[in-house]
Amino acid sequence: MTTLPQLTQKKLGLVIDLDTCVGCHACVISCKGWNTENYGAPLSDQNAYGADNSGTFLNRVHSFEVQPTGDDAAAQLIHFPKSCLHCEDAPCVTVCPTGASYKREEDGIVLVNEQDCIGCGLCAWACPYGARELDAAEGVMKKCTLCVDRIYNENLEEVDRVPTCVRTCPSGARHFGDLGDENSDVSKLVAERGGMDLMPEQGTKPVNKYLPPRPKDALPEFDILAPFLEPVAQEAKGFLGWLDKTLEKL
Amino acid sequence: MNQPKIDLSPKVSDEIRKTTCYMCACRCGINVHMKEGKVAYIEGNRDHPVNKGVLCAKGSAGIMQVNAPSRLQAPMKRVGPRGSGEFETISWDEALQLATDWLEPIRNENPEKLAFFTGRDQSQSFTSFWAQNFGTPNYAAHGGFCSVNMAAAGIYTMGGAFWEFGQPDWDYTKLFMLFGVAEDHDSNPIKMGIGKIKARGARVIGVNPIRTGYNAVADDWVGITPGTDGLFILAMVHCLMKAGKIDLNYLAQYTNAPVLVNSDEKSPEFGLLMRDEDGKELVIDRVTGKLTPFDKPGVKPDLSATHRIAGVTHRPVFHMMAERYLEDEYAPEAVADRCGIPAKRIRAIAAELARVAFEESFELDQEWTDFRGEHHKTMTGRPVSFHAMRGISAHANGFQTCRALHVLQILLGTVEVPGGFRFKPPYPKPATAHPKPHVGVTPGKPLDGPHLGFVHGPDDLALKADGTAARIDKAFTWENPMSSHGLMHMVISNAHAGDPYKIDTLFMYMANMSWNSSMNTRGVIEMLTDKNEETGEYVIPHIIYSDAYSSEMVAYADLIFPDATYLERHDCISLLDRPICEADAAADAIRWPVIEPDRDVRGFQSVLCELGAKLNLPAFVNEDGSQKYADYGDYIVNHIRKPGIGPLAGFRGKDGDQVGRGDANPDQLDKYIENGGFFVEHIEKGANYYKPWNKAYQDWAVGMGLYDTPQPYLFNLYVEPMRKFQLAAEGHGDRQPPDHLRERIKEKMDPLPIWYSNEEENKGDEYPITALTQRPMAMYHSWGSQNAWLRQLHGHNPLYIPTKLMQIHGLKDEDWVTVTSPHGAITVPILEMAALNENTIWTWNAIGKRKGAWALEEDAPEVTKGFLLNHLIHELLPPKGDGLRWANSDPITGQAAWFDLKVKIEKADPPAESQPVLPAIKSPVPKAPKDLAWKVGK
Amino acid sequence: MHPAPSVIVFTTFSGLGFGLMFWLGIDPTPPTGWVAFVFWLIAYVMGVGGLLASTFHLGRPERAIKAFSQWRSSWLSREGIAAVATLVVMALYGLGLVFFGSAWQPLGWLGAIGALATVFTTSMIYAQMKTIPRWNTKLTPAMFLSLSLAGGALLKGNVTMAVVLLAIAGVIQVVTWVQGDQAFANSGTTMATATGLGDIGKVRAFEPPHTGTNYLMREFIHVIGRKHSQKLRIISVLLAVVIPVILLLLPIGHWIALVAVISHIAGVLASRWLFFAEAEHVVGLYYGKR
To answer: In chain C, how many domains are there?
Structure first.
């Protein structure tokens, strides 16, 4: 199973909008909650109430500061959620010695079969994105399942058959769909907004796409907006004169 | 290929119980998934009006709050000295008897000896009702150090405020400008709204010294110098007025801009509005040219005409505004340096406001009738909206700054119009429709009315006959006349000082006063533990405290009532209080016990029902003296505040089919549970904009029980009650301020917005850097640290330092600095931040914890690296040499000015732990487990 | 990368063990009897011990058997198969030599190829990692093989071969370091490509996602000072190559040979510690650390 399927019927994945992510970590904790209770072993926490506390998370929100070139340009802060990108050419799958790591033929989701995982960590080594974490309690590799136990779950209402991070995201910065279908909403969004790959040079062909932030601090210079503030008069008296004239027109 | 077969349709849960979140003040609807009677998973409720299915990090982490090892286990009586954390467990009977033994004599002799203050209480209409029944004037929640500038400025100006009491018109707005918006109130709706308008291509402008959260996604960021927002806003007012880019029709129809003002300096009514015999404000009608009440059908108020009578000239408010704001002192060039914003940028933003408000205005095809009976074929949209929060309110100039922002909104005609800012019921509601403060104390009897309210002149101040403060917190006194939320932050220091008087029992709920909820943390700890040298008794003799968790405050109480967690209790999010309404709907909600407590704890409100009965408080006993409300759930259903009005507006009447008004319905809670834990009543189309002046809305609001009669009113660009205080300070009237306050009242209580600097009072020359705090979106106050998941996100709080200060002080990431204010010093770890005002440092609020609290281990990062800025802030300003100590608060409302904090920094050798280190307190709860793998289902 | 003792011990000793087996396998006049027993014992203790050590870093060592299944794609699986096959073949060959005094030569040759294959597959586990540019080079197998062969020769007592191979291994080691120092920069992966934000301006990591640590940071982010690593490199080459070569050029004696072997092992251990500690995983870019 460690070999990758030639072609998957669908390419299910996420589109993450860096323009609207406010960095609230809602997706992080919702993911932790769902995936602790569902697929496979719970996501454990070590030293939960002490020093050096750490735990397994399948989704984490980084933040970066970007300093635009150009004089006096203000630095920008960009919140950056990151989870498994369900790569077409997933190096984490091919390195796996046991076949526990696999990419599903029907939808392209990369999963770990926890019964077969020996916890060697090699898949995490092979992943450039840090999408896999070895659970310290269970000794097996955990990763984003794209909520495979939600998206087809007949016990959930149709509208809820999306990954929990997408369902919970308050600012609507996470979108889920078939990126293999160029007519899907997510594919259109990617086309429209210039969706991008992370580390394209790694050759992993990630399915998840990131929508870049829209240009910031781009309010037109005052010279262009000046007509909107043309003074009606220079002094208070003159202003009241203008007022009288204008009121007559009302 | 043989892929493993996996179960794609596992059972999600046995049952979903729908209730209301309490992981912050947002009050979202949640679906609590249960497995085998245990909480398995929490998600947002899609049907809920607040969050429509989404849920923040805190909400999803609720499961870790309900299992937190920090939960108090049983009632406790202090056995060691205060602050030691040594307690013995007692029974509820004993606990309630002890409280009764302390409180009963107070009530019979002098009820003001009880100070009852509640912190992050979401049941204020209930707790205040209890306090009113007890008879003490000393009740408030935490608004005085949180939001009062914003609330009071909003309500006095336009009958409603920002915070969660209103919202931008997310459907139509095209330009959204936010000032200092905190991320813990209405946070999911704001995030949803920002996502929605950005998807539409609308512009978001963020004004904040710090570019995080909403400001990080803002299209334009204005990294303003803290405390200068008012100046920036008034500069934009200057530009817009000068260019005539103001909505004259709106100003004439719906505001007091055309109302005539006595302009004779010698008159004892100088500056007061002209009114007719019924007290109605008078305007000149443009049609008749005559003096006319503002609300007369058909009147077209004139913004320009003056009126002279009996030798006194009366000028419209608008004249006074033109005179003031067209002055060059408000020109962008004059304010740019102080605000830290180039003049051109100020002009560009003002121009963009003008462009969107007037060039992109639109008409909604919706008929409506105004309060004057005039029929309108359409509704004019001005798609500019604003929102603001603590960032502009927690300054000593916060009230006037909030006022300035409202004036800007109103000049653009963007309040309660399509595309603008909209109120949520029960707002709009003018200040005059709110109660006034009541302090009439009679031993053994209830207070003569509600504690808090809105003053309209010196006569309404809460003063005793001898002119001293009637309330322990000195709210509604000359020091802070319009302190509508009380001043919780002054209670302990005043009680300790015996100024205005001594108290016997301090009773608090959910307020971490010995730690992050006080300015001057260490000072407060000393006051709480200080003993009278002669008697050996504590200066504050009794302290009763209720909390669900092992907060730092627990150790300082003599008697602990352990509260239930939010999934184990009843609550109501009531229209009488702070409901969950939307601009298009009235809505309220409940919490109900979706799980039973596994400890000997009780919901605090239920405890008050029992304690109220033991104390024989009239509203809490039946005629035969027996306990009236079995518990809070019983109160929620059966309490009648006014005929037909109770805590919940939905499913009223015997059959549960009445809305707003109706008899108590014994099945009301079940109906709420069936309905998903909430109730919504939509406002019909045509009634949902122009609410203060819209006949259809006013009638709807009366039907809902929001008011008893229609209350149309004018927006107050000019706030007359402020002028009344000025007049008193100028020597008019019987009630006179003390002389040392006269000048300040004359200057600061200006009825038109002004701006003043707070730098000098805070020794800005010696301490040139402003230090701020922010709430992380994933943590609420001090609560997040006890949560195994959330504390991994924010386990400690670096001090963020702008690049320029890093360079000046030769600093690099993870260095330590000593931060010194006029009041104290802390030594803490730092991190560089570029997207930050170059003269501002900041950190996350309430991450630092005391050793022994919250069931954390003593070497937890919250304890060793975390810290509070509170140690640097004092409730008083540094001495300025006049022999007096002035409060570090807004002189109008008394709001704690913790964003005025000025400091200096210096590189420090890394200490073993953040400084100062306070001694450990003994944990009153069992030790926490080391590791967690929380899976409820099999 | 976190320099885990288990993998350092594993690669060092299995390399030496299989290196020794290679020389034992191709020896046209192999030792027999007790002498053979000692040689094969050393080879097996090192080879098997190394393999056992490697299981210490498994989360679920009891399932290790499953690792033999994915030889079609996984270098780790191939390594396991190669190692076990080699050990089985060589066990038979060794059996012949020790107990029957006869060299079933074709088994020896087969085993020698297996030994080389084992070391090669081990090296490819690392060399295949595009995510770790320092390893992602042909120099990695060259370095592993040369050290294995040199160490094997040293253990076998093939003095001339050992001197030559040690010198070669030393050169490859130094080239690996020099090239490795440029590898990350040459890989083209930067914070700009990692975030896609490079078009806006200069990207800097701000707050980490969690204030505490996590598996990724523990496993992949290990910062060592440049001075510290330069010192270790010198020590490593001195111990692994220079000292053994000098000792081998001296009149040979058992004790001197033992010192040479110990020195070599210590040097290779240092080299392996550096191999991991200096390796920077691209995921570190997301944390602003490498």
So the answer is: 2
Q: Using a CB-CB distance cutoff of 8 angstroms, which residues of chain A are in contact with residue C76?
A: 95, 97, 120, 122
pLDDT tens string B776-819: 999 998 999 999 999 999 999 999 999 999 999 999 999 999 99
Structure tokens at B422: 């909209």
Asked if the C-beta of C213 comes within 8 angstroms of chain A's C-beta atoms, the answer is yes
For B323-363, give the DSSP string: HHHTSGGGSHHHHHHHHTS-HHHHHHHHHHHHIIIIIS-EE
- Greatest C-alpha distance within chain C: 74
Secondary structure in 3-state letters for chain A: CCCCCCCCCCCEEEEEECCCCCCCCHHHHHHHHHHHHCCCCCCCEECCCCCCCEECCCCEEEEEEEEECCCCCCCEEEEEEECCCCCCCCHHHHCCCCCCEEECCCCCCEEECCCCCCCCCHHHHHCCCCCEEECCCCCCEEECCCCHHHHCCCCCCHHHCCCHHHHHCCCCCEEEEECCCCCCHHHHHHHHHCCECCCHHHCCCCCCEEECCCCCCCCCCHHHHHHHHCCCCCCHHHHHHHHHHHHHHC
Look-up: residue for tokens 């005039």?
B374
Mapped onto helix, strand or coil, the DSSP state of residue B387 is: strand
Confidence of residue B599 (pLDDT cuts 50, 70, 90): very high
Nearest 10 degrees: Cα torsion C76, C81, C84, C85: -150
- Contact criterion met (CB < 8 Å) for B303 and A247: yes
Residue at which a domain ends, from B622, B652, B682: B682
Query: Residue C75 CB: number of other CB atoms within 10 A?
Result: 24
Interface predicted TM-score (ipTM): 0.97
- Can you tell me the mean pLDDT for B238-247? 96
CA distance A38 to A150: 10
Residues 849-878 of B with CB under 8 A from C: 861
Looking at 3.40.190.10, 1.20.120.790, 3.40.50.2300, 3.30.70.20, the CATH number of the domain A12-211 comes to 3.30.70.20
- How far, in Å, CA of B393 to CA of B889, rounded? 11
Boundary (domain end) residue, out of C109, C128, C147 = C128
Could you tell me if B50 and B123 lie in one domain? no
Q: What is the pTM of this model?
A: 0.96
Q: For B835, which of A30, A76, A220 is closest by C-beta distance? A: A76
Task: Tell me if B617 sits within 8 A of B138, measured CB to CB.
Answer: no
